[in-house]
Amino acid sequence: MLNFDRQLLEEIKRRIEIKSGLANTKSWSQKDYEFLSFFIEEGTACRLSVSTLKRIWANQLQRLPHTSTLDALSQVAFSTDWQRLKANRLLKSHTEFRGSTKKNTRSRSRFKKIMVLVVFGLPLLLIFSGTGRRFKKSREEVMDVNLSYKKSVTNTLPNTVIFNYDIEGLDAERFFLQQSWDRSRRVEIFKGISERTDVYYIPGYFTAKLIADDRVVQETPVHVTYDDWFIAARQPMSNIITFDKELWAKEEYLALDEKPLETKGVNLNEKFQLAFYHVKDFGLEGDNLTYSTSFKMEPLEAVDCPMINIHIQGTTGYYWVMLGHRGCESEFHLTVGEKNHNGKTQDLTMFGADMYQWNEVKIDTNHKNVVLELNGKHIFSTSYKETIGPVMEISYFFNGIGMIDNVELQNQNHEMVFSDDFTSIAAPE
Question: Which end of the chain, C or N, has fewer beta carbons within 10 A?
Fold first, then answer.
């Protein structure tokens, strides 16, 4: 590993430590590394294993990590990919060095040697290290590949989406289309073909990505809507299991019983995710809203820390609120717009509750100032700067068997935009 690469990687690591709130790396526990993995995935949709992070932070590397790993770390630290960051750092160091030659003529010969290395040595180094093509492509990613899409059906699932694009002018070894944050939903595409179809099995407001080698060259939002609530489970996360309405619990709240989960192959003794979605254009601005809902969970032997993640997705930002069992607050995380709060570095103990009883949470946002209440008690206040945009999705994610009730969305004038108390589920047909 070159000294410059090593120094840049160390700079990235220090920056991530500051942004994540994880200081004093010598005392990091397994939980700290697990949080770091979550922190990176939450910011980049790229999951780095705990073992990989341990090797990187312990400097147990003889060569640079994989490009996708470097890109994820660079994105979290400096909001750009590794090659672009490296090129900018090289340019900056050479520019600063050139400026210093005006004051010290003795450094001119040294600068010439450095420029010879940059002009001749760096391209060779990139070629032999297999990154020359990616370095060249950092200038190409601004190209418009005209990524667009249309859906085969409306408000129905599954939904085949037809993507159109033009990659003929891009120079890369391989190209991919990824339908969302989920890397497992990535398919390879090829030059000479400008159309690719893909199936969306769950609703949501997704960001589809066109990727050349390991770099995203263009993104486009894909709004896959549905005309009702939708329930799905994941076990593992790459395996999506959906549940038709006749499998829902016949109660005056939205839920699944154990039987349909087990019938569809979900092992209740292993980790799984249960999700509820309602996806449409709610006609509501995310920066000014009042949202409330009730929730609870059923105890499971395999779940020590039952938790719910409440997600409100706008066109440009989102809310992500984690609540869970008392005593598990270190695992909690809150995101509103660009603002992140986590239980590793902040006291989020007010977000703890008895998850086996009904709880009510309320989110009140007025011009990007957010107030959270749990069971009628104020628990947190924060604010953000970057707009959420119009609300396109509300969803819930449980790490076990959960249920929700009394969902309400109001605008800034306290007018009801959406509500559901689920009484129709238990009504006789």
Answer: C
Residue 407 and residue 311 in contact, taking contact as beta carbons nearer than 8 Å: no
> Taking residues 42-60, what's their average pLDDT?
84
CA distance 165 to 357: 50
Average pLDDT for 170-193: 90
Q: What tokens were used for 10?
A: 């160390």
Which of 230, 252, 258, 229 minimizes the C-alpha distance to 425? 252
pLDDT for position 212: 92
The C-alpha angle 382, 313, 162, rounded to 5 degrees, equals: 155
Q: Report the predicted TM-score, pTM, of the whole model to 2 decimal places.
A: 0.69
Closest listed residue to residue 292, CA positions, set 195, 202, 375: 375
For residues 72 and 79, give the distance between their C-alpha atoms in angstroms, rounded to a whole number. Answer: 9
pLDDT at 388 over 90: yes
B/e letters for 245-264, b = 16+ CB within 10 Å, e = fewer, are eeebbeeebbbbeeebbeee
**In whole angstroms, what is the distance from residue 94 CA to residue 81 CA?**
20
417: number of Cβ within 10 Å: 15
Q: What is the pLDDT of residues 250-281, one digit of tens each?
A: 999 999 999 999 999 999 999 999 999 999 99
Per-residue model confidence as pLDDT tens digits over 128-151: 333 333 333 333 344 578 999 999
**∠ CA(213), CA(218), CA(224), 5° rounding?**
115
**Section 57-79 average pLDDT:** 86
In the 8-state DSSP scheme, what is residue 357? S
Angle between helices 3-20 and 82-100 (to 10 degrees): 110
Is residue 403 exposed (0-12), middle (13-18) or buried (19+ Cβ within 10 Å)? buried
The full set of domains in the chain, from first to last, is 3-137 (no CATH), 148-224 (2.60.40), 230-426 (2.60.120.200)
